[in-house]
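Ticket 4471: requesting a sanity check on a complex prediction with zinc ion. Repro inputs:
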Amino acid sequence: MKKLIRGLQEFQEHRFDEYRGLFEQLAHGQKPKVLFITCSDSRIVPNLLTQTEPGELFVVRNAGNIVPPYGAANGGEGATIEYAVHALGINQVVICGHSHCGAMKGLLKLNQLRESMPLVCQWLEHAAGTLRVLQDSYAHLEGEELIETAVAENILTQIDNLKTYPVIHSRLHQGKMKIHGWIYEFETGNVLSYDRSAHAFVPPSTQLVKDDDEGVILPGQYVNTSAPPVDAAVPSPVSAERSGSSGAPWLSQEQAKRIYQGNGLRR
Ligand SMILES: [Zn+2]
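Returned structure tokens:
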């Protein structure tokens, strides 16, 4: 705690002045543009990752960036999602999973957690869809490959869960809502974003052409990624066939194909 107390003093005495004007403005109300759902993992820092300021991200965090299906849990997640969309008018959602996720490791050994951490076990059951996909479609994987696949598939599971919320469903029906699935590899700073049409995770910059329909998200504003530059005029999602060389430099071509396209059973 000493470090935190010293940090408070440092913030109040030296750093707050940099933000004084912004916070005075925000005192009149917040108007965040993005609901950012991510893991509680201490290595994930949403504002740092996206280079956003206070007031720009409305954040939900929990173990495993999980969204319980509507009605499955009357918890904070559902209330926060509802408030974000209905009260704040947010129409962009990011569900951001990450490399080396402890929750996904836990999901892979759920039975072992049942006695030692019953609440964690119960919580992770909201990712049962992810577990079932892994068992049915990725039984040949193990170790890090299996965990990376769990991270990727869990993002898709949670997007499906998010769509069960009436307020989300309605906005999607009106064409007023965009849901983005991100994988953040914190050890490299790289982010990949799910491309529905390609059923692959691609550099987010390739999606700006398609998604920047309201001028809300500007290139370079949304994500700080070291993904290779992409010709903005011609969106070219990195399919699994290409991702080994250009889109996901930390994945081999074969690995990327397995992780992000599975064996074709899903979708
Ligand atoms: Zn995590």
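Notes from triage: The two ends are 48 Å apart (CA to CA). Leaving this open until the requester confirms.
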